């Protein structure tokens, strides 16, 4: 039996002013880890902001956890169940890492008597326990990103939206990150992960959506994406070639023969 989608968008139109970025999009997010791929400007962040209930749909509907989100009141109800790591997240530079993550726990309405342990658990999950007192302004890019991931997972959200979470992480940290999202998914968190690193999708995602100019041009497993690859598509792995193929970016056969 098919499970209830964690999120469902129907006939979504979204944009900025009169500029349409996403048009007539139908999309379901299932439990597990969903990778979101697409070139710069495809609309990934715009989609995240819609799923995170930050930007209401210009038209169309959003359902989260099986319920319609039809206005600010509905949005407030579900927001506490959503962890969102934006690409560029704000913070007070003078805050310690603990202050920052605890503040995010407060924003997510984690009960105050649980906030301390939830913060410690989130910091442990990203390997920042020993740096918990460091000030945000003193962190390297990779550590800052890990603090952001801790803020997104604090309080164990049901839906985790991660916009390019591995930017700035070194290879060992990326492997740790993949382990972390696999273990969160095993514990029941639905995760949507936007990235430009196709190999992260192959290693950590159950399904993958490819967005191009605000439209889904592939929805399926990473294996199914790899199977889309044409022989002339550029790329260093079947998955990269499948991705380039569904984007329609690969060179025609006659050019490749030159
Ligand atoms: N606040 C805004 N006002 C006007 N246009 C915007 C705004 N934010 C994004 N856009 C435009 O919307 C389009 C989609 O942007 P979006 O950030 O959603 O893409 P993306 O797929 O996340 O790109 P990237 O991979 O570069 O992060 C782009 O053309 C961008 O210039």
TrEMBL record:
This is ABC transporter ATP-binding protein. InterPro entries: AAA+_ATPase (IPR003593), ABC_transporter-like_ATP-bd (IPR003439), ABC_transporter-like_CS (IPR017871), P-loop_NTPase (IPR027417). Gene3D superfamilies: P-loop containing nucleotide triphosphate hydrolases. Coiled coil: none annotated. Transmembrane segments: none annotated. Keywords: ATP-binding, Nucleotide-binding, Transport. SMART domains: AAA (SM00382). GO terms for molecular function: ATP binding; ATP hydrolysis activity. It comes from Streptomyces purpureus. Belongs to the ABC transporter superfamily. Pfam families: ABC_tran (PF00005). PANTHER family: ABC TRANSPORTER, ATP-BINDING PROTEIN (PTHR43335:SF2). Residues 7-238 form the ABC transporter domain.
């Amino acid at each position: 039996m098919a499970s209830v989608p964690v999120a469902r968008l129907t006939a979504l139109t979204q944009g900025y002013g009169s500029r349409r970025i996403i048009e007539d999009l139908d999309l379901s997010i299932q439990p597990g880890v969903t990778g979101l791929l697409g070139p710069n400007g495809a609309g990934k962040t715009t989609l995240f902001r819609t799923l995170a209930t930050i930007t209401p749909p210009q038209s169309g509907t959003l359902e989260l956890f099986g319920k319609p989100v039809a206005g600010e009141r509905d949005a407030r109800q579900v927001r506490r169940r959503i962890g969102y790591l934006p690409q560029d997240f704000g913070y007070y530079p003078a805050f310690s890492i603990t202050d920052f993550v605890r503040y995010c726990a407060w924003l997510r309405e984690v009960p105050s008597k649980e906030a301390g342990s939830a913060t410690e658990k989130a910091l442990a999950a990203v390997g920042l326990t020993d740096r918990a007192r460091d000030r945000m302004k003193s962190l390297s890019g990779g550590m800052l990103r890990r603090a952001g991931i801790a803020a997104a997972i604090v309080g164990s959200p049901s839906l985790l939206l991660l916009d390019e979470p591995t930017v700035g992480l070194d290879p060992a940290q990326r492997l740790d990150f993949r382990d972390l999202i696999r273990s969160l998914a095993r514990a029941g968190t639905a995760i949507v992960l936007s990235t430009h690193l196709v190999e992260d999708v192959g290693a950590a995602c159950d399904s993958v959506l490819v967005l191009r100019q605000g439209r889904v041009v592939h929805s399926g497993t990473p294996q199914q994406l790899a199977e889309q690859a044409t022989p002339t598509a550029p790329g260093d792995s079947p998955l990269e070639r499948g991705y380039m193929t569904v984007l329609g970016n690969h060179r025609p056969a006659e050019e490749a023969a030159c």
